[in-house]
Amino acid sequence: MRFWNRLRLRTRGGRLETELQDEIRLHREMLHEEFVRQGMPPAEAARAAARQFGNPASAADLSRDEWTFPHLDILWKDVRFALRLMLRHPLLTAAAALTVAFGVGANTAILSVLETVLLNPLGMPHASRLMVARVHLDKLQMRHAPDSGVEFRELHAMTDAFSAVAAMENRAWTWQTGGQATRLLGQAVTPDFFRVFGAAPALGRFFSGDEERGVVLSYDMWQSRFGGDAGAIGRTIVLDDTPHQVVGVAPKDFRFPADAAAWSPLVLSKYRLSQRGYNMTLLVFARLRDGVTPARASGRVNRYVAGLAAGPGGAEWREMGYGIDLDPFAIYLAGDLRSPLWLLWAAALVVLLTGCANVAGLLLTRSSSRRKEIAIRLSLGATRWQIVRQLLLESLLLGTFGGLAGVALARGAVALIARLPVPGKEVLALVSLQRGMLLYGLALAMLSGLLFGLAPALQLLRESQTAAMARSRRRWFQDIFVTAEVAGAFLLVAMTGLLLRSLWTVERVRLGFDSRHLTTAYFTKPKNDPGFQDRLKAELQHAPGVESAALVYPVPLTTGGLTSGFSIRNRERLPGEPEWHGEAYFVTPEYFETMRIPLLRGRNLAASDTAGAPTVCLIDRKLADRFFPNQDPIGQEISMYKGWARIVGVTAAVRADSLEEETRPVAYYSLPQVPFFPQAAAVVRSHTPAAKLIREVVRRTNASVPVFDVRTMEERIGESLGIRRVLAMLLCVFGGISLLLAAIGIYGVMAQVVGERTQEVGIRMAMGARPGQILRQFMSQGARSGTLGLVLGVGATAAVQKWIGALLYQVRPLDAATLAAAAAGILAVLVAAVWWPSRRASRIDPQAALRHE
Amino acid sequence: MATPNPEFLKGTLDMLILRTLSRGPNHGYGIAQHIRRLSQDAFKVGEGSLYPALQRLLVNGWVRAEWGITETNRQARVYTITPAGRKQLAEEVREFDCVLAAIARVMEGV
Asked: Among A195, A171, A165, which Cα is nearest to A183's?
């Protein structure tokens, strides 16, 4: 009530003031008139009136006090004073605010990603109770492999551990709409799928038990393709030539998988539900029953696997090292992003902390130059607390400005993150800066403000102690400062170095084919057009600007080859020899010319190797060397796909799975001879990127064929290196900034030390100390703290090696050369930062120094 | 009669103003005059101290102020007591009576 009255009065602003003045003047006039009326002479009446009224100025002041907010007004005065001070040192202010802005911005952006991907995965309700089951086969070094129907059946039966279990399988439909073929990504899911995720339909319903032809649309799909029309329910859409009826729309915030536009029912046949290890294309999700911990559920699953291995027919699975892993949904979702994200977050925190230390150092320098001002204010009656409050307010303001700028930075950064070309980008595209994150950023900034404001404030509070003690305290702070800056910078620079070395090593990996000027694009094979592939190939080969063109499935460096066990005719595995595994690619004869993979022996695949002809294949050198040493492989027969195939040639080996992993032995089949797969891709070598060309040619050849995943080979390689490149780049930025901060900060602090001790140095030089001694003394002070910082930095690097190890390639986390280089770099910066102030100290003119102050 | 302690007055002044206004709206000078006349010049505090008190009452919402015309045909700010002000007055009078009675009992008891 009082507050509002005051506010109302205040908002009347200047009028209030003049009204009060008028009122007081009027009152005095009336008094004066009355005295005159009583018969006083005017002069005496004026004196009497003044006496009777009292001091008008004080009356006005006291009145004014009634409608002010005393605390707020003082605060506002302090804020204005702080702002004035900040404007008077624009460079310092900008440096401090930018430091905070960068630290807070980086932190907020990265935490936003962590939030969406890991902490609160996709905003799923009770995501910590949601588990993903995946298979591992140790013998084949397969981890996180998809499930077959059996895993779904078994988990579904464990009703004591799980309240709901569902399976999903990737779908890529061709959607015929308005005479156009669109590729639609989605999932086929078992009835409980949405229940497992705790989602309720935005419209219509989800699937019932035995439905086969329904489809649930994603909210985005419903909005963009159906205009958000409620009448979409009940409509029929044709997916893969089969009519599906739209039964419901998923809620807006249900975005799993991130690229799913629709879900259809998944009906698992009795056969699939009983074939373990076959058709491993499912992903099984399970919601924990109330009161069941993830560990207990895992135990339950492991008991099942143990029982299976011990049971009849279990030997095979025991030998394969079969098992089922139960992971929290967040871990599954974050996948390869998990370590990089935590690492980046930690790095951003280190940058923020070194930044805070730096700003503290800057403020400390200024607060000692402000000592005179503070002394005056103290002697004018300001309390120590008021001064401390003023200092803290200043740093809080700095923090707030930095925080606001940082949040703006984070907003930009999140937009950039959503477009990063890395695996998992579908999830990253869902990251947005939420209100909680904004609060986190601002809170972090305020905290930083308090943190770096504390140093000057504490120093001031201690100023009351003897000068000598204060000085020794200060040096104590300076030592800690140098140590911390060096440790932080070392940690980041060392990690950057390790990641850069890994990146460098990976980038130099020889692929075995010429990845430049290659454009690749997937298409879905049309059902009723047997000549399509031949026509497409011919059209592409004769298109302008095309050097050569071929068809392949799958495209190297995309999903990895199709791994399979194989056998060789007339040969048995030796006892104890591991199972034979290889990868298959299905290509047209022009593939090797287009990719520039040399043919080493024998003949190429030929146009005559068609469906009717005997099955043939090429093998790569790796397969030849390992399985046919000292022996001609040509004419031998292997069976990997589609029965026995005769080897007709040997090609050079390539890296086809990823740059970082050795590719398994490879067999190349003739694409027309193995028509199992619904998709294939065109590979075109041309001088200009051929994305548009491929789309046009495919449309011309058959308008009902959707083209998708069109990218140059370089882009595919870039994406497989994406995390590595982005991580190395970001850490380069973080490391560079923290190194720069350390250099500026250490220089500033040392310069201050020298400034404060000018007199002392002057006396010592007057007493005969040589410049060299002075130089050494200051240098050694810096070196001592710096070395301690290095030691701490190495310790920190060792502590985080568990995180970083997974991100390295052929470099150990404590790689001596890298760490030594980082240490040398830091030492160079340290020496430079300490050298200049120390040299200034050694050149102090004793006479001038003694007159100093 | 000696001049009462101004501090003691501070709380009482609010009450006196409210009491004055409870008879009808009045301007600052009029209030001062009224208090002076009825107290027979006992409160020799500068009349200026009336204004901080009036502002305080305004802030508390116990009085309202409007510009009006005085009986001598001048522009003046006229204060009116609000219902909340009347309640406050009753409260203060009750407290004041208690204090007075207590003082009286002590003084008579000696």
From this structure: A171
- Which member of B27, B48, B59 has the closest CB to residue A58? B48
Set of chain B residues whose Cβ sits within 8 Å of the Cβ of A30: 29, 72, 74
Contact A67 B54 (CB under 8 A): no
CA separation for the pair A338, A331 (Å, rounded):
8
Element (H, E) at A151: helix A149-157
Contact B49 A31 (CB under 8 A): no
B32 chain-A contacts, CB cut-off 8 A:
27
Q: Determine the Cα–Cα distance for residues A432 and A418; give it in Å rounded to an integer.
A: 8
Task: Report the residue of chain B nearest A16, measured CA to CA.
Answer: B55
What are the φ and ψ backbone dihedral angles of A82, each rounded to 5 degrees?
-60, -40
Query: How far is the C-alpha of B64 from the C-alpha of B80, rounded, in Å?
Result: 5
Tell me the chain A residues in contact with residue B59 when contact means C-beta distances shorter than 8 Å: 2, 5-6, 9, 66-67
* Coil, helix or strand at residue A411: helix
pLDDT per residue over A653-706, tens digit each? 998 877 777 778 899 999 999 888 888 999 999 988 889 999 999 999 998 888
Question: Amino acid identity, residue A98?
Answer: L
pLDDT tens for each residue of A290-311: 999 999 999 999 999 999 988 8
**pLDDT tens by residue, A6-41:** 666 666 656 777 788 888 888 888 888 888 888 888
What is the chain B residue with the closest CA to A29?
B29
The answer, for B59 touching chain A at a CB cutoff of 8 Å, is: yes
Give the nearest partner residue to A26 out of B48, B60, B76, using CB atoms: B76
Alpha helices in A311-383 (DSSP H): 315-320, 329-334, 338-369, 371-379
**Contact check, Cβ <8 Å, A6/B59:** yes
Q: Which residues of B touch A23 (CB under 8 A)?
A: 28, 51, 76-77
Contact A838, A754 (CB under 8 A): yes
CA distance A449 to B106: 60
Structure tokens at A30: 């009336």
The distance between the two most distant Cα atoms of chain A, rounded to a whole number of Å, is 142
Question: Cα separation of A627 and A402, whole Å?
Answer: 64
CB atoms within 10 A of CB A310: 10
Dist CA A38 CA A32 (whole Å): 10
Distance CA B83, CA B61 (A): 9
Angle between helices A758-766 and A722-756 (to 10 degrees): 60
> Using 50, 70 and 90 to split pLDDT, how confident is the model at A468?
very low
* C-alpha A519 chain-centroid distance: 29
Q: Where are the domains of chain A?
A: 2-68, 126-335, 465-510+723-853, 526-704
CB proximity B60 to A under 8 Å: yes
- The answer to whether A96 and A352 have CB atoms below 8 angstroms apart is no
Compute φ and ψ for A603, nearest 5 degrees: -115, 165
Secondary structure, 3-state, A488-531: HHHHHHHHHHHHHHHHHHHHCCCCCCCCCCEEEEEEECCCCCCC
Euclidean distance between CA atoms A774 and A779, whole angstroms: 9
Is residue A677 within 8 Å of residue A553, measured between CB atoms? yes
Distances (CA, A) of A180 to A201, A237, A521, A526: 29, 13, 18, 13
Q: Which domains does chain B have, with CATH numbers?
A: 6-109 (1.10.10.10)
C-alpha A264/C-alpha A189 separation (Å) is 6
CA A527 to chain centre: 42
From chain A, which residues contact B within 8 Å (Cβ)? 1-2, 5-6, 9, 19-20, 22-24, 26-27, 30-31, 52-56, 58-60, 62-67
Residues in chain B: 110
CA distances A234 to A82, A214, A590, Å, are 66, 9, 48
